[in-house]
Amino acid sequence: MSTMVKPSLQHRLMTEHDLPGVMEIENRAYPVPWTIGIMRDCLRIGYHCWAYEQNGGLVGYAIMSMAMDVGEAHILNLCVRPESQGAGIGRRMLEHMLELVRDSGCHLILLEARPSNPAAIRLYRSTGFEQIGRRKAYYPLPDGREDALVFALDISSA
Q1: CA distances (Å), 138 to each of 43, 93, 117, 126, in order?
Q2: Which domains does the chain have, with CATH numbers?
Q3: Are 49 and 12 spatial neighbours (Cβ–Cβ below 8 Å)?
Q4: Which residue in the list 47, 124, 139, 146 is annotated as catalytic?
Q5: Per-residue pLDDT tens for 73-112?
Q6: 95 counts as catalytic
């Protein structure tokens, strides 16, 4: 009997040196990507910025803010290289983010998802996130704007 072994996924804090690879993924994954300036600002102001590698190459990244005074975390960007999507990497990255939040003492995690991204919505719902709202015209598109579905997870009861 053969067993399939998942390649290991390593995570580490993102650095300025990761930005070319991060931007390559960001530009391929989104119709209107974040700019390198936004990414640099996230590093500069101390957001929790993580790089995820598999087989020595960057496969994804995640950026999260934490407001310890109110016990909330906000996952701002969780992105997997397009050709690596669907292999469980996003789930493992999200699990790492949830672990960081639990360890921080925060109790509520927020994030947004595009209605046009059913895979992300399934992932968030399958990990206990519930939709709590909708932000009209939140995401820019090349020819307009798209709403954002707002999700929350209360990990104090999970």
Answers
A1: 23, 24, 14, 24
A2: 10-154 (3.40.630.30)
A3: no
A4: 124
A5: 999 999 999 999 999 999 999 999 999 999 998 999 999 9
A6: no
SS3 content of the chain, % helix, strand, coil (to 5): 30, 40, 30
pLDDT in tens, 28-72: 999 999 999 999 999 999 999 999 999 999 999 999 999 988 999
CA distances from 70 to 29, 66, 77, 130 (A): 32, 9, 21, 20
Does the annotation count 112 as an active-site position?
yes
Comparing 7 with 45, the larger pLDDT belongs to: 45
Query: CA-CA distance, 52 to 58, in Å (whole number)?
Result: 6
Residue at token pair 């598109």: 141
Predicted confidence band of residue 1 (pLDDT cuts 50, 70, 90): very low
> Which residues, at least 6 apart from 119, have a Cβ–Cβ distance to it below 8 Å?
85, 86, 90
Listed residue (61, 70, 64, 73) closest to 21, CA to CA: 61
Q: Tell me which of 26, 112, 130, 146 is the catalytic residue.
A: 112
